[in-house]
Amino acid sequence: MSVPVILVTGFLGAGKTSFINALLESGLRRVAAIVNDFGAINIDAEILEGRSDAVIGLGNGCICCSLQGDLLRSLKLVLAQQPEAIVIEASGVSDPRGIVETLSDPVLWNDVRLDAILCVVDAQDLADTPARADDPLWQAQVGAADYVILSKTALADPAGLARLNTRIAAGYRLKSFDVDRDGLPLAVLFTDAITPRAPLPPGRVHSAERFTALDWQAEGRLPFNGFQRLMEDLAPVLWRAKGFVSVIERPGPPLLFQMVGRRAGFETGTSTRTGCRLVLIGETDGFDADAARARLDALIQHPDKKDCK
Ligand SMILES: Nc1nc2c(ncn2[C@@H]2O[C@H](COP(=O)(O)OP(=O)(O)OP(=O)(O)O)[C@@H](O)[C@H]2O)c(=O)[nH]1
């Protein structure tokens, strides 16, 4: 019997990893996860580690284009562990059509079947910025989905949320789920019903050149105020920042830093590794990754330095 695959897509920072985390925690099935980060440092895989016996991180590109071969190899690897289901998290800049193409490869025909494509949509962001839905990448992701999962609805302006629901219902004829209100849509996942999939519209949105990722890692700690100021400065040109940050003023393991748009904060980390690992993603046109790297390098307090910045 082939193993069902759930493909989770959605824009940068929409809430894909959080959704998959909840899915793995539900313990519903023995689920293996393949997680694709656009940046070279695979933060998402580190967040999910320990939640499943099998978490494979694929970084530095997109499984919809440059990493299609890696996706095939990873599927073969996780299949060897005989999972009951596989969940694939696409990078936030992926067009799902390239991934569906890989999953249709004849070498996988007897092994896996694509059960559902979910697109996680940041309801707060969309309610505040309806023009986001005009972005061709957003449209490719939502347009390929069987189900839309609305995240952050509790943070969304209610009138904007109502407009968003109407737009999704009218434009895409999709069922949307509000995870904050209704919990995980487990009833539609893992049904074991084999339904033929209608072909997706042709074409592909190629976004790899549109976005630039800065991958930065260093042993040592960052000063809280200096790091916060830097992120405030960069926020207007960044879509996404995430990673593990060891803070000088907070001894102990690194904290998980998350920034989506202008919303930023520290969460309790799951990393047992020391030092800092950060991925910053912006549009190639506006984000100067070299300048950002230089500012991080100037801030880091290496373990052997005594003076505080
Ligand atoms: N309040 C709230 N916050 C959420 C929800 N979903 C995600 N977040 C927060 O949004 C931020 C981004 O969430 P992720 O799950 O990492 O988003 P992602 O789509 O995996 O991000 P990328 O893989 O980087 O594209 C994190 O700070 C999450 O805690 C939600 O439903 N409600």
* Helix share, percent: 25-40%
Strand order of the largest sheet: 3-2-4-1-5-6-7
Distance between the termini: 59 Å
Main CATH class of the largest domain = Alpha Beta
Give the ordered list of helices and strands.
EHEHEHEHEHHEHEHEHEEEEH
List the ions, cofactors and other small molecules found in this model.
Answer: guanosine-5'-triphosphate
Percent strand equals 25-35%
Looking at the chains present, what oligomeric state does this protein adopt? single chain
The CATH topology of the largest domain: Rossmann fold
Form type: globular
Look at the helices and sheets and give the structural class.
Answer: alpha/beta
Mean pLDDT: 89
Number of domains: 2
Structure description:
This protein is an alpha/beta fold. The chain folds into 2 domains: 3-188, 3-Layer(aba) Sandwich (Rossmann fold); 211-299, CobW-like, C-terminal domain (Hypothetical Protein Yjia, Chain: A,domain 2, 2-Layer Sandwich). 29% of the residues lie in helices and 27% in strands. The protein contains 10 helices and 12 strands. Strands 3-2-4-1-5-6-7 form a 7-stranded parallel β-sheet, with helices on both faces. A 5-stranded antiparallel β-sheet has the order 8-12-9-10-11, with helices on one face. Strand 2 (31-36), helix 2 (43-48) and strand 3 (55-58) form a beta-alpha-beta unit. Helix 3 packs across helix 4 and helix 9 (224-234) packs antiparallel against helix 10 (289-299). The longest helix is centred in the middle third of the chain and has 15 residues, at 158-172. The radius of gyration is 19 Å and the shape is globular. It starts with a strand and ends in a 10-residue tail after the last helix. The protein binds guanosine-5'-triphosphate (GTP). Guanosine-5'-triphosphate binds at residues 10, 12-18, 44, 92, 151-152, 155, 179-180, 240, 242, 258, 260. Zinc chaperone that directly transfers zinc cofactor to target proteins, thereby activating them. Zinc is transferred from the CXCC motif in the GTPase domain to the zinc binding site in target proteins in a process requiring GTP hydrolysis. Residues 211-300 form the CobW C-terminal domain. Belongs to the SIMIBI class G3E GTPase family. ZNG1 subfamily. InterPro entries: CobW-likC_sf, CobW-like_C, CobW/HypB/UreG_nucleotide-bd, P-loop_NTPase, Zinc-reg_GTPase_activator.
